[in-house]
Amino acid sequence: MINAVGKPQSILLLGGTSDLGLAVVEEFLSRGPARVILAARAGSDLSGPVARCEAAGASGVETVDFDATAFDTHDAVINSVEGDIDLAIVAFGVLGDNEQQWQDQKQAVLAAEVNYTGAVSVGVLLADRMKKQGHGQIVVFSSVAGEMVRRSNFVYGSTKAGVDGFYRMLGEALRGTGVHVLTVRPGQVRTKMTDGLDDAPLTVDKSVAAKAVAAGVDAGRSVIWVHPLFRWVMLILKNLPQAVVRRLPI
Ligand SMILES: NC(=O)c1ccc[n+]([C@@H]2O[C@H](COP(=O)([O-])OP(=O)(O)OC[C@H]3O[C@@H](n4cnc5c(N)ncnc54)[C@H](OP(=O)(O)O)[C@@H]3O)[C@@H](O)[C@H]2O)c1
Question: Which residues pair with 138 in a beta bridge?
């Protein structure tokens, strides 16, 4: 259970090599030791992620094979975790090249399966597991790209729009069960995923994003914008006609 000072005893990271997910794990470990389970693709080099968790004070680090697109295996992955799952972080995802994705069926389907279907699959299973244990916190990474789907990254953005809607309403469906869901809408964060990209406006470091996530969990929030200004920026952008948006450099 996440105790009165916001410290979980067990943390499951789905997307065990995710830079952002690991930053959130580190942020919670800064409050005291916890057992960490890293769920990552078979064959991933987990030495770095395991070392990060140990250096941050994990009481133990376990690993389990997890492929977001192997939907039939997800039940076994979640069930392989012994004891309660206090905090589950859904952090897997692919960005990809939008111009290739929308013109290449395989790439578009991969993005949809990893980012949306995979996230829905583990969301249902985590909700069931946590309902039975009577408590739990789910954190999922949506994106400002899903809050308003733009021409420049509409394949990725549309998958995140789906994730955002699903998890926000999963949180509603779980009200009163002791299970909480936090949907996180980062703008650009400096991680492995954005390595090599120029900083977009309001880009933040992963430690800043992780602190925002922990604060959101502490406050029992259901949605956060990692950079608070995005809430207002997106509100304005969403209400502009597409003919105007088309002329903007976004
Ligand atoms: N960084 C940003 O600017 C930003 C902004 C908004 C939202 N987000 C979201 O935040 C989350 C974390 O991203 P990040 O910045 O931490 O990027 P990252 O370091 O590239 O992490 C992405 C993770 O997804 C995993 N993954 C990809 N395909 C998978 C599959 N088929 N099965 C299992 N795992 C798979 C990767 O595993 P491998 O190591 O095996 O590839 C990696 O662990 C993602 O959902 C991303 O969309 C990021």
Answer: 88, 181
CA of 14 to the centre of ligand 1 (A): 10
CATH fold for domain 10-245: Rossmann fold (3.40.50)
Q: 96 C-alpha to center of ligand 1: Å? A: 11
Burial category of 46 from C-beta neighbours within 10 Å (exposed 0-12, middle 13-18, buried 19 and up) = middle
Please provide residue 161's backbone torsions phi and psi, each rounded to the nearest 5 degrees: -60, -40
DSSP track, 31-73: TS--EEEEEE-TT---HHHHHHHHHTT-SEEEEEE--TT-GGG
Amino acid letter for position 122: V
In this prediction, residue 249 has a pLDDT band, given cuts at 50, 70 and 90, of: confident
Confidence grade of residue 158 (pLDDT, cut at 50, 70, 90): very high
Shortest-distance atom of ligand 1 to CA 119: 45
